Amino acid sequence: xxxxxxIWLIIGAVVLFAIVCAAVRRERIRVADSAFWVVFSLxxxxxxxxxxxxxxxxxxxxxxxxxxxxxxxxxxxxxxxxMASSAKISRLCAKVEELSSxxxxxxxxxxxx
Amino acid sequence: xxxxxxxxxxxxxxxxxLAATCPDVEIxxxxxxxxxxxxxxxxxxxxxxxSLPVNCGxxxxxxxxxxxxxERGFDAVCQFDADGQHEARYLPTMVCAMEEGDAxxxxxxxxxxxxxxxxxxxxxxxxxxISSLIRLTTGVRIADPTSGYRLFGSALFDAFADGFDxxxxxxSLAWLIRQGAKVAEIPCEMAERQGGRSYLNxxxxxxxxxxxxxxxxxxxxxxx
Lengths: 113, 224
Hints:
Chain A is mostly helical.
């Protein structure tokens, strides 16, 4: 892992954290949902500050370049959160549909009273 | 205000005791999209029950109760568990504490008094951590911030009814204190839950702690 990569990782993590803070402040995201991104930026900073961990891990799983391992870990985490987001959106869609039908039926009942 | 999610086993016992102990209090059950017979049982027994058509979580159920209270000009709303953990006999003391101490929030605390029962295990550890974080950031000592037995005065109705991402939780308490709300505590004992399930278990309790600490330590300062 080159020094340049480590610096860029830290810059990226700090920018990410700033974006999350702005989103919380502007009431765009709930704190519960922002927690993942704060932890994620901390993980990136951890890898940047302690590259030994990346070296150790890449030796463990047999990846030649530690920086590739860092990229792979980041991609894996992002795929997982994307899956979780898709699942959450599905649940939300189901709830909105259920709510709409409840509302429609309630209004219909009121009309006929 | 009694939020209820799948509490058919115990809710009638809880409500009967509450009604018998505090006849002057209006009871509103907010059924949070229960899949079981909670709503039917409560309505058949003659209690006032509002039903959310889908499960929306405690914060939303609580906000519904607060909106109800605001529209009808109530003085305070008590968050009362359906599962039998909260004993109704403390409610009059909480109301007194609110009036005498001019408080906005009164918490029934398991950690006050000489023979306080306290909070044990991992839950107690989390509770102590949250307590010290609140003290660190607001200077106010709350012995039992995770107690779910709280009385909220009408001055806070707008915050809970209209606010973004505010619920009846310890991190919201810290934020409200920084907005100028006054918190008082009275000693109480709590019973074991008589039925139903806590929404805090395994992974969700870790997520709960992360959210609570993050909110108190970091986001409290930048939120409006």
